[in-house]
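Support request from a user on the community tier.

User writes: "When I paste my structure tokens into the form, the page sometimes reloads and wipes my input. The last time it worked, I copied everything first. Here is what I submitted, just in case something in the input itself triggers the reload:"
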């Protein structure tokens, strides 16, 4: 039985999120289908469950099953079979029982807004906004999220998280493409269901109205009444990076594993 981590990227436009759903094509089901056809039965587990339409520059998944192809050729072989919207960047052996959901140290997301008509090559990856947005209010709103907070006011119904405290390391906006592309970047030790999209929607509302009141109430006094309910569209959101704890790659006491170099990406 092989335990292989894959670092992948994808365009989520045509997928119904990451996690398998019986009636829809998802990133997980596409990976399991193509890997299964090539290697035999197995299972994929992902470090992050992105929503329908959300993209990823770097997602980490683990394949548990057969692996009859040398690891240094596996990425190339898989990329010949997978749809072009899913790319395997590299692969690595991981110890038995290694669960990417439990070894994450931090995650980083990017949300992109385009001001005015959108060029074709950007259309899938930005949310077009023509309305007035106050840049200073966007920046001020972003800074409020930094630090340890109770983000229960920024999660949608259906969240399975046991705690709502999250530590946000970085939260800021920047401009690119001669001021037409506005990019929000946020990194934290974890995120709640729809958390980033709710944060972006709240910041945009603050930038439109010139008031941070609703955002502050949701952050400082997260009652059901104060909870943010409007979501920013999924198309603008990308999972940029996942950092894992290095100590998680220590092999278990298993003779079969001793010859493998864990955490070396091919």
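"...and here is what came back when it finally went through:"
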């Amino acid at each position: 039985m092989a335990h292989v981590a894959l670092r992948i990227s994808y365009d989520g436009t045509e997928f119904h999120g990451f996690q398998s759903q019986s009636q829809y094509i998802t990133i997980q089901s596409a990976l399991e289908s193509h890997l299964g056809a090539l290697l035999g039965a197995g299972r994929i587990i992902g470090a992050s469950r992105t929503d329908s339409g959300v993209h990823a520059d770097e997602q980490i998944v683990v394949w548990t099953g057969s692996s009859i192809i040398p690891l240094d050729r596996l990425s190339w072989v898989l990329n010949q079979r997978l749809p072009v919207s899913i790319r395997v960047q590299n692969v690595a052996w991981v110890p038995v029982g290694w669960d990417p959901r439990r070894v994450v140290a931090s995650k980083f997301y990017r949300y992109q807004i385009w001001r005015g008509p959108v060029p074709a090559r950007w259309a899938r990856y930005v949310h077009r906004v023509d309305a007035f947005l106050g840049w200073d209010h966007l920046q001020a709103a972003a800074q409020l999220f930094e630090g340890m907070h109770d983000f229960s006011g920024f999660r949608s119904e259906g969240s399975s998280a046991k705690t709502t405290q999250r530590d946000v390391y970085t939260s800021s906006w920047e401009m690119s493409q001669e001021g037409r592309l506005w990019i929000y970047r946020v990194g934290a030790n974890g995120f709640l269901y729809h958390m980033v999209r709710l944060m972006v929607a709240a910041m945009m509302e603050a930038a439109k109205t010139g008031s941070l009141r609703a955002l502050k109430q949701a952050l400082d006094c997260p009652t059901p009444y104060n909870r943010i309910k409007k979501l920013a569209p999924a198309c603008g959101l990308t999972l940029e990076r996942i950092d894992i704890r290095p100590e998680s790659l220590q092999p278990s006491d298993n003779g079969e594993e001793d010859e493998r170099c864990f955490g070396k990406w091919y």
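Agent notes: The reload is a front-end session timeout and is unrelated to the input. The first strand starts at residue 2 and ends at 10. The CA atoms of residues 152 and 164 lie 5 Å apart. Escalated to web team.
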